[in-house]
Amino acid sequence: MTSLRFKHCQEESEDRVLIAIQTIKEVKTLHKAPSTFDATRLIAEAETGQNSSNTCVVCKAAGHIKPTEPLETHHVAGRSNFEAVTISACLSHHQHLSIMQLKWLVKDTSPENRLASYLFGFSDLFYLMWEETTLNYFQELSKAFAYRGYYFRDRSDKA
């Protein structure tokens, strides 16, 4: 039923960013963000496929800059959902993120599942940052993005 679909699924590119930014703002009200990390900038760079520092985003968040390590392009929501939404990752972190992606990536490309995949992808990225830094801010971002992802995936099941 179309009336059950969340209005943000209609204008995917703008609305997914707005949802991500709102999620970041909500987490920031409760948890202090590291001064060296800007989650909103990460979203913007992923949307444009740009990496201003030309380093692995996970390594950068953890302060493990490895300028000589080759980078790979990771499709945050999976290539089949939003091919242009990418981040740079070293081989190790790219492999880890790709394995994590297998637990939620589905073939159903409804607008709700595409949005859920986008949110789950960032949840995985923030979770990996939390593993590398043990900063609660990243753990809370991961949880908040995952909760929103489950919301949209569940909406898809009811549509």
Structure description:
The relative contact order is 0.17. Helix 5 (111-133) runs antiparallel to helix 6 (136-158). The protein has a two-stranded antiparallel ribbon. The longest helix is centred in the last third of the chain and has 23 residues, at 111-133. The protein has one domain (10-154). With 159 residues, the chain is mainly alpha-helical. The protein contains 6 helices and 2 strands, in the order αααββααα.
Low-confidence stretches: 1-11
Could you say which structural class the secondary elements and strand pairing correspond to?
mainly alpha
Helix content: 55-70%
- Taken together, the total number of domains comes to 1
The value of Rg in angstroms is 15 Å
Beta strands, count: 2
The SSE string, one letter per element, is HHHEEHHH
Strand order of the largest sheet: 1-2
| First and last CA, distance | 5 Å
The description of the largest β-sheet is: 2 strands, antiparallel
Shape: globular
**Number of discrete helical segments:** 6
Strand content: 5-15%
Mean of residue pLDDT? 85
Oligomer: single chain
